[in-house]
Amino acid sequence: MQAQARAQPNIALIKYWGKRDLARNLPATGSISLTLADLFTEMRVIADDALREDVLLVNGDESRTMLARVSACIDQVAGDRRPAVRVESHSNFPIAAGLASSAAAFAALVVAADAAFETRKTPHQLANLAGRASGSAARSLLGGFVELRNRPDEVEVATLLPAVDWPLQVVVAITAPGPKPVSSGDAMEISRKTSPFYDRWVEQQSADLGEARAAIETRDLRRLGAVAEHNCLKMHSVMWASRPPLTYWNSATVACMQTVRDLQAGGTEVFFTIDAGPQLKAVCSAAAAPAVRDALAATAGVGDVMVSGLGGGAGTLAT
Ligand code: PMV
């Protein structure tokens, strides 16, 4: 019994930041993201009766940090009376640095576990199981522009527009490759409990979702960019006003924001977003991508720059 699956990270344009139910890891609000094509995580799940406990290898090295979450996620799919498994994870991009690596990892994991144990879950069930492990992972089950909606006791994901219908590019500027100081799960709880802006953030989310939905429907990059940047900066304002303050940016993150502002002033249709990490993601048309990549690569403090198109959702691979 073994299977392999691949999933791509997704970049939130209208962010998920805060939980309504901690035990079931349900988000406080809906969110909208785009799924990337060229960055991916592959997960192989091998059931092995000879193993006494689950083993996790991340890019070839045994890892205990994520093992408990991985085991719990597989239990959710296959039940806790399953045999122990060996899980092999490979990513072609830096993990745990605000690039939604956990989204790609848990989306790939539920698909691989479902196939290995032949549990035949529906895509809706798999999205909910991935979302229990990492809220944003539910969105990586699908491709293109994806909306996550809150439903009683669960979430629902839907593709608003497939990638081929609006083939934008995402340019990721890596300003610091290391893992983030506070996990997004812990940081969300700090924000919910202490930020004076948290309730307003939650209240305003449905207006931002509506605006983004309309911009995606009409493929209006300027309109989408305006609401996405606003939503991103609001999320970070919630974090900055938390106690202790959560500041994921560094000086290069701010320099990258200025680079995007300069490109916009020069007529390039591009916008930025930043998650719980110091990397900046710029979203633009395919025609603008080379100029955006060069401008970000030339920005002080930027290490690597990666460019990706938009892609399809998670799926199994031949083993
Ligand atoms: O799914 P998590 O727990 O890794 O949280 C994701 C949080 C953000 O990336 C900052 C926003 C989002 O909607 O993806």
Layout of helices and strands, plus pairs?
Elements lengths: L1 E6 L2 E5 L4 E3 L4 E2 L3 E5 L5 E7 L7 E4 L2 E2 L4 H12 L6 E7 L9 H16 L6 H11 L11 E7 L2 E8 L7 E5 L10 H11 L3 H20 L3 H20 L10 H15 L4 E4 L6 E5 L4 H9 L7 E5 L5 E3 L2
Parallel strand pairs: 7-9
Antiparallel strand pairs: 1-6, 1-16, 2-5, 3-4, 5-10, 6-9, 7-8, 10-11, 12-14, 12-15, 13-14
Helix pairs in contact: 1-2, 1-3, 2-3, 5-6
Bound molecules: (3R)-3-hydroxy-3-methyl-5-(phosphonooxy)pentanoic acid.
- Write down the CATH topology of the largest domain: Ribosomal Protein S5, domain 2
Order of strands, main sheet, comes to 8-7-9-6-1-16
SSE run: EEEEEEEEHEHHEEEHHHHEEHEE
Q: Helical percent range?
A: 25-40%
Q: Which ions, cofactors or small ligands are bound in this entry?
A: (3R)-3-hydroxy-3-methyl-5-(phosphonooxy)pentanoic acid
Q: Any low-confidence stretches, pLDDT <50, length ≥5?
A: none
Q: Main β-sheet: number of strands, strand sense, barrel status?
A: 6 strands, mixed
Rg calculated over all Cα atoms: 19 Å
Number of helices: 8
Q: Overall mean pLDDT score?
A: 95
- The second-level CATH architecture of the largest domain is 2-Layer Sandwich
Q: What is the name of the CATH class of the largest domain?
A: Alpha Beta
Domain unit count: 2
Structure description:
The protein is an alpha+beta fold and 319 residues long. It has two domains: 2-162, 2-Layer Sandwich (Ribosomal Protein S5, domain 2); 165-309, Alpha-Beta Plaits (2-Layer Sandwich), CATH 3.30.70.890. 36% of the residues lie in helices and 24% in strands. The protein is built from eight helices and 16 strands. The chain has a six-stranded mixed sheet, covered by helices on one side. It has a four-stranded antiparallel sheet with strand order 2-5-10-11, sandwiched between helices. It is globular. The model has no long low-confidence stretch (mean pLDDT 95). (3R)-3-hydroxy-3-methyl-5-(phosphonooxy)pentanoic acid is lined by residues 12, 15-17, 31, 100, 102-103, 134-136, 184-185, 275-276.
